[in-house]
Amino acid sequence: MSAAREAILTTLRRQLKRGPLSDESRSRLQQRLAQPPRHTVPQRGLLPHSEQIGLFIRMAEQADASVQRLSTSAAIPAAIADYIQRHNLPSELVMAPDPSVSELPWAEQAHLRTRVGAAGDQDKVCVSPAFVGIAETGTLMLLSGAQTPTTLNFLPDAHIVVLPAERIVGPYEDAWQRLREQQVALPRTVNLITGPSRSADIEQTLQLGAHGPMQLHIIILDHPS
Hints:
This protein is an alpha/beta fold and 225 residues long. It has 2 domains: 1-36, no CATH class; 49-223, Rossmann fold (3-Layer(aba) Sandwich). It is built from 6 helices and 12 strands.
């Protein structure tokens, strides 16, 4: 353990008025991390997978996201070009370095100007993949990392997310379980996004785009390959 980390933990222990964990407490904590208990799951999350997809779409649309289903990944660039045109968005877009989006046939859409990498203040449209979709609330789980910069989730005005249908799960418990199974270590950030950014803090008037994108468009891909 680094000296800086030990200094932070020492400060926290002092504020909590306790010392280091006992061997028994440490053992219980390690056992809980190794075998996390499942918590209460709403009945609507316990559906066959085909019905989970339908539930995810309904819940996402109720949260003001738009949803489109495509059969193959090759159709994604044309669908995004059409979405950009219909919503009068800029033809420049930034996309995640993840091959599931960066290696699509973008060259077929010659009028689009694409860039791969993290988003900046100047970017208005972005494309990124989702780790999973959670049907019970229509929520996307997005992970931070070199292939999926977190700035894509918050800086552009329009966020387009690619979600393979096979990655839609019922409850949150299944989403976290899949993350534990497929990640060697948890990412630094896990973003759970339901619909466009919104706030009603000012006079209880709903404002879209308060802390992030004003538009969220989800492309559900039935056949990723």
